[in-house]
What does this fold into?
Amino acid sequence: MGVKTPLKALLIFINPEFQLYQATMNLPAIFPAQINRYIDKLKLNSQPPNKKYLMLAEKLMSLHLEDIPYGRRFEYTFDELEKGVKCTSCGLFMSLLSKNNLKCSCGSIEKTEFAILRSVEEYKILFPEEKITTKSIHMFCNILNSKRSIQKILSKHYQLNGYGKTSNYEPF
It folds into this structure.
């Protein structure tokens, strides 16, 4: 748009409970305790807007997008996704080491119970409308553990609703 005005980029932390330890002194950041003082400084140094800046503001407002293209949800189905439990260290799929442990080619080992619970959380994020069932988690994790093992883990950490093929799990 042909506007040449100096800009200063700052990182502003607004959470009053946030604290960044060992931050360098030249870090371009404003911390919660500094926000009010920074706003007061801006007010003191500000100038009344001239015609050039008013026109810029109008142009920016005219370019405002109501529907953000990168904010759209991805369309996918359960069948399209690659199934398995991903390693927290490297992101590769893990395999069964023993009844209680999964292993990754990077050398990481994780308890099967924790890996399945992590996968349940991923499943809930990917498919918020779907019910958590033993069958769906068994298919989603794609490990050779029996459905009975997965059922025990789900029963230990979730509330069972229903019986038989219609049973599903919800958080306590």
Summary: The first strand starts at residue 11 and ends at 12. The mean pLDDT is 89.
